[in-house]
Amino acid sequence: MKIIISEKFNPLIIISLLMFFPSLGFSVNEYWVPKYPPKAHYEIRAKIDTLNNMINGNEIITVINNSVKDISVLTFNWSISSESEISISLNGEILSLLNMDKNETESFPLIYALNTPIKPGENVQLNIDFSSTYQTRDTKEIKLIGWYPRLFWDGIYTFDSYKIKLEIPDDFAVAISGRFNKKTGYYENNGVRTCGIYLCKDLLTEQKEVGDVVITSLYTNDGSECAKLCLNTAVDVVKYYKDWLGFYPFKFLYIIPGADKPMGGYPFASGIVVIHGQQKFQEKPLLHWQWITAHEIGHQYWGEYVFDEDDSWLWIGLGVYADREYSLYRNLGTEKHTNMMMRYINGIENNYNTTADLTASEIRKIDFDYNNVIKHGKGVSIISALECVLGKDIFVRIYKRCLDEYAGKYLDYHSFWRICEEESGEDLTWFFDQWVRSNKYLSYSIVDQKCEQEKDRFVSHIKVKCHGTLKMPIPVKALFEDGSSQTQFTNRLLETNHLQFESKSKLKEAVIDPNNRLAMIKDTLFASHGEILENISVMSWTNAQEKAIQFFSQATEIKLRDYNSWFKLGMVLVDSRNYVKALQCFQKTLEIEPKDFISFVWLGHLNDLKGEREEALKYYQKALENDDGGTYQHSQFGLFVNRKWVEERLLAPFIFE
């Protein structure tokens, strides 16, 4: 079986499963993974035989045990088969392979016992000879990830440094995760997440420098016009990112061609980005090529410099924030970013579950385009909304701190959340619970506005209403006839906000979310069964007439069968004196619980309040026939309802005092 070296190395085996295989002949306790696996230095000499699809090489891995206890077992992201080989030695002694016997044809990952454990703080050098075949769709183009044996820490990437000397045919252009050192003949880097190699025939190359960063474009003759634009844009983007963030992660950047359709791009490896469809330059506007260049370079910070899980929305959202800032800087507009948020909005409107905090198994069960709807669409929407809430100055401080503290490390959204709270001084549970941990959606609108003159000033009143299930401060901008403007934020706790502006001239118009930063639904959407149950459960028992009427309609629409929800709706509608709908709610509770004492009582109460005394008496009698012996307290009305209470209602009708 061949080793398939694909564009994305995605190990599936977890070393901890070894405990189920005692025949391996070693103690499970001998293998463990440090909390922060040690970074390593790889010095590799490799020959790539493009005629036979073979790689032969030698590497020296220098690693320091940065933990507090001995390391006696190492694993490698490699396999042994009829077409791949490896030999590892330490201090001149060949290491013993633990997980492959004579009867096995292959095994992955490879597990080796060390003759002498690596002590804490000790520096060792592993000498490895290796060879393997690779597969490629096109003999003229070769993309290699995972092409060399690498220390494997349960699939956790480490920020390793490399020196690589390649022997390749002269007619191939090369892009590699390193910068060529003319003195040594090696491609070198100071640390990367993924070390990739791209080889291709019949390509032209052009280089430009931005300070200490060398940018190289590899392109076809047909794609030369586009490639030159992307190269010039990359120079401008890297300069902007360096000025804004204070650094660029690598001393090199390669732009390589991709598919023949202009459909975007992706980060192939550290320091290497793909831009699709360059040979069809005219099919897309200049904005597309400028934006996609900035976008993919942004992911060299988020994804290749600061790590995150492959299916996480966070690194996408933070990466897109970078290219949005560049777009604003160059007055390119935010059309691309608005379109990206529309993917999420369309998902909401299609009633998809857009909860962002999902496990890998939950993601695998999704039957819609998770990458576009959640990772990109909602990821961008979450980050944009967070910047709106915290303000740009605080958010950029958070952004830079994450780059500084998590360089070469994994950043999950819980750590990001913690930093956001530390920098802002706010408890942001309300934000992350709604945006990340739920399927709630944002919908606000201006429902009324008026302007009145008071002596030498104008007073404008703007009424903003929340129609959605997600609550957050929303910016509202008032523009006046003299060209001036003012912005206020709504209170997230209020369903309806009344904003007041004072000005020297008359109100011209009021605009909600003036900078188009928020992914907002225009209309109230149909709620799912789970959302209706949750909305009713958190609804206040008093002064919630509008919500109760809205949820009553939604519950009726889906034919909700939940006793507690209908009973609470009934009580809230009684509080708001909507006796007709309240009566319908208690009729629903009786459909679910036909002998429910308290539902009969309230049907009696409501008929009394409507002046239907004979009907009320029938329900009171039914309540007595189904008396459960309990006493029910209704604090909002100061009532204690039991058998004695009902017997009194047979003599005197119920009234609100």
Give a verbal description of the structure.
This protein is of the alpha+beta class and 657 residues long. The protein has 16 helices and 27 strands. A hairpin with a 2-residue loop joins strand 20 and strand 21 (457-466).
How would a crystallographer describe the biggest sheet?
A: 8 strands, mixed
User: Per DSSP, what share of the residues sits in E-state strands of 2 or more residues?
Assistant: 25-35%
**What structural class results from the helix and strand content?**
alpha+beta
The CATH architecture designation of the largest domain is Sandwich
Q: What is the CA–CA distance across the termini?
A: 85 Å
- Biggest sheet strand order reads 5-4-8-2-1-10-13-12
State the helix count: 16
CATH class of the largest domain: Mainly Beta
Any idea what the radius of gyration is?
A: 33 Å
Helical content band: 25-40%
Number of extended strands: 27
Low-confidence stretches: 1-29
Mean pLDDT: 90
Count of spatially separate domains:
4
CATH fold field value of the largest domain = Immunoglobulin-like
What is the approximate shape? elongated
